[in-house]
Amino acid sequence: MTSSSIDILIIGAGPTGLMLACQLSLYPNITFRIIDKNSSRTVNSRALAVHARSIELFAQLNLAEKALAQGKFIDKMSVFIRGKHRCSLDLTLIRTEQQSLFTHYPYILFLEQSVTEQLLETFLNEHNIKVERQTEAIDFIDIDSKNDNDVQVILSTGETIQTKYICACDGARSIVRHKLNLPFHGRTYSESLFVADCQVDNAPLGTDQAGVFLASSGLSGLLPMTNNRYRLFGTIHEQNETDETISIDEAAHLLKQRSEHFNMNVHDCSWISVYRSHHRHITKFRYRNRYFLLGDAAHIHSPVGGQGMNTGLQDSHNLAWKLAYVLTYSARDCLLDTYHDERSAIAKTLVNTTDRAFAFLSSTYWTTRFVRLFIAPILFQFIVQPLFIYLRKFRQAVFLGLSQLGITYRSLNVYDYGASAGNFHQNTPQPGDRFPYVIFDPCHYHFVIFERQQLIKVNQFVEFIKKEYSKMIKIHDSYEEKIPLKLEGAILIRPDGYIAYRTNVFDIRHFQCYFHQFFPTEIM
């Protein structure tokens, strides 16, 4: 017997589920619940890297300063091959280029996942929302699959709830994905990975420096953490694998062997784990209209570049406002389809690129190992490092890719119909691009006016928006608000910070035709 009815059920309270809940909590008329099978949030460090785009999401929730205060900035990334230092990338150079990178957060921040979850859950608690722990979803029943109506969810507590949408944020072993029989395409790597949080004396790195050590026996690394601790990691090849465990002495031995720094002293280990790495993704991020899969439930990949948790956070950010606008403003259902269109393309690209990178770093094939150990040192030392130091465009391209600031949806068909009115300079941001530098509130569209001429047409356009869409769209004058960008015309920014529409002709009918695709407003 149904005991409650809600708009959205979030299954899983890791970073992805918590971010989704935080974003939805900003919409007071939406009813949702978030459940998790575990008795408490993680107390282990787990995912460490929080990239610039994710810090921007925290900024929308007024959590960025708290995250920065509790994390560790990485000043330098170094590569050692066969015991010799071959390359260092000075990340402090990036921080001096804040304006040209168009972000307030040109950092790589190491923040323990336990702290990330604490920040997000505290935000929820402050909004009177509690995570329902030790609660699992046991089964799902579509009430009327023909008309795409609600879903009944049977919980482990014995309760049955009715919901319009289910958001699966329940990780790589997702019960939702399993119950829906969705294939998880990809493969499992032959190598396992160990991770450990320890104190390290006589490390060959500074306390703000990350290091990777490549050797014939495999890959290891050191990542600095707060309180003078380090994250140790490394590959364990198939012939040396144990079932699920490795001792800290064995992990320390692999690190010393691959770095050829045998005087390191690894001690006071607070957490150690061994896991198999995969690269997999589902083909549909939206299923039967009512089910959405996010984060590791939809895609998993190697830990190269620290992209996993960050990608899950972006999934949540992309979906939350779309669900909210369908439920709050009666947006057309096709708006929800764009979640799959946009995020599945990103996931596929990420899975493929991290797979190639991990394969190169860990492969035991003799040809790959020869290139890694004898060709790569020359490339790193004489090409990559000089390019990073002396060529700003190269340096920024590396950072934009790693930080996820460079993600764009511009090539997708959803933006091909009428999303741009007028002729623009080639450097003007396009629909589908992230709007640079400025962070607006995540509950509205934002129409930013740069035009200093055509004032009559601009004013008519603004009055139209105020009359028809005042609850959805906020108006901004770039000059009055001192927005540090010099662009032409005007740009409409989505709640997640990506550009929806641009114009320098201020044709009201053109805008109506575009907006009518997603919102059922009468065309005038």
UniProtKB/TrEMBL annotation:
Q: Which InterPro entries match?
A: FAD-bd, FAD/NAD-bd_sf, RIFMO-like
Instruction: Describe the location of the FAD-binding domain by residue ranges.
Output: 6-353
The transmembrane segments are 370-391
One Pfam entry for this protein is FAD_binding_3
Name the coenzymes or cofactors required.
Answer: FAD
> Which keywords does the record carry?
FAD, Flavoprotein, Membrane, Transmembrane, Transmembrane helix
Output this protein's name.
FAD-binding domain-containing protein
Per the UniProt record, the source organism is Rotaria sordida
